[in-house]
Write a structure and sequence with these properties.
This protein is mainly β. 5% of the residues lie in helices and 25% in strands.
C-alpha cells in the first residue's frame, strides 16, 4: 500500500481511496499518524480481505468497515479504546476478532450480521454490551467480561449461541437480548439480575435457565410465560 491510498486529515483516516482490487483482496495496515478511523472510511469495500489496526489508533468510528463483505480478519492493537456504532456491521466473512484489553467501548450493532464470526474476545474493560452488538453472529459460545453491568436489546439475538454464563455484576438483560437463539440450551443468570426485558428469550424453546432459588431470574423462569415458551428452570 502507498500513503496516497489513504485520505488522512488531522489524524483521522477519512477514506481508503485505492483503486478497486478487481479479483484480488487488499491486506491493509493503517499507517502511522492515524489516531482515528473515520466514519465510512472503508464502508462497502468488498476488496478488503484483512486489516491490521495498530495501537496508535484509538477510535474506530461508526460504519468504518460496515459492509466489507469479504473482510476475514481484523487485528486490533493495544491502544484501541473505542469501536463505534455499526463499525463492522455485516462483515459477513469475518471469522475472528480479538479485542485488546484497551477496548472499553463497543457501539451498538458493531458486529451485527457477522454471520461467520466464530470467535470473539471481549476485554474486561467493557461494562455494557449494547443493543444488537452481536446480532446474528455465528459463534456458539462467548465469555462476557466479569465487570459487565448490562446486556442491551437484541445484543445476541439470532446468534449461534448454545450456552452462556452471565457475570455476577449484570443487573439488566434487555428486551429480545437472546431472542431467536434456536440453539441456546443453557444460560446461567446470577442473583444480581433484577430486570429481564420483554421477549428476552423469545423462540428459545428447550432453554434451561440456571439461577439461584428465590432470585428474580428464578421467578422469571418459572412464570407462566416461560412455561408457555417451554423454558425450564434449574436452581443453583
Amino acid at each position: 500500500m502507498h500513503t496516497n491510498d489513504f485520505l488522512i486529515s488531522r489524524g483521522i483516516l477519512k477514506e481508503f481511496s485505492a483503486a478497486p482490487a478487481g479479483d484480488g483482496q487488499y491486506s491493509v495496515t493503517i499507517p502511522g499518524g492515524v489516531q482515528a478511523i473515520g466514519a465510512d472510511a472503508f464502508r462497502n469495500r468488498n476488496d478488503l480481505g484483512e486489516v491490521t489496526i495498530p495501537g496508535h489508533v484509538a477510535t474506530i468510528r461508526k460504519w468504518a468497515f460496515a459492509g466489507c463483505e469479504n473482510l476475514q480478519a481484523a487485528k486490533l492493537g493495544i491502544g484501541v479504546t473505542t469501536i463505534g456504532d455499526y463499525a463492522f456491521n455485516f462483515c459477513r466473512q469475518l471469522e475472528s476478532v480479538e479485542l485488546p484489553p484497551s477496548v472499553s467501548v463497543i457501539g451498538k450493532d458493531a458486529f451485527a450480521g457477522c454471520f461467520n464470526l466464530r470467535s470473539v474476545t471481549i476485554p474486561d474493560g467493557v461494562t455494557v454490551i449494547p443493543n444488537n452488538a452481536f446480532f446474528r453472529c455465528g459463534f456458539h459460545s462467548i465469555t462476557l467480561p466479569r465487570y459487565t453491568q448490562s446486556i442491551g436489546k437484541g445484543a445476541f439475538a439470532s446468534s449461534g449461541l448454545r450456552s452462556i454464563e452471565i457475570p455476577d455484576q449484570v443487573t439488566t438483560i434487555g428486551a429480545e437480548a437472546f431472542a431467536y437463539c434456536h440453539n441456546l440450551e443453557r444460560i446461567v443468570i446470577p442473583a444480581s439480575v433484577t430486570s429481564i426485558g420483554k421477549n428476552a428469550f423469545h423462540e428459545c424453546s428447550g432453554l434451561t435457565i440456571y439461577a439461584p432459588a428465590g432470585s428474580y431470574a428464578a421467578a422469571y423462569a418459572t412464570s407462566p410465560s416461560a412455561k408457555k415458551q417451554r423454558i425450564d428452570f434449574c436452581p443453583l
